[in-house]
Amino acid sequence: MQTSQQHKERGKVVSDLFGYIPAVLKEYKPFWCIEYSVLHPATGQMTQVREKVSGYKTRYGVREARKLLRVAVNRLNLKLSQGYNPFFVHEDSRLYERLTNVIDKFITEKTRELRPNTLRSYKSMIGKELCEWAQQNYPIITASTFTKSIAVRYMDYIADKGKSNTSYNNTKKCASSFFSWCVEKCYAKENPFEHIKPKRKEQKKTNFGTARSARTNTRVFTRRKSRGYANCLEFDTSKSFAPQRSERNSNQTHSFERKIYTCAFRCGEKSQ
Question: How many helices (H) and strands (E) does the chain have?
Answer without folding.
Answer: 10, 3
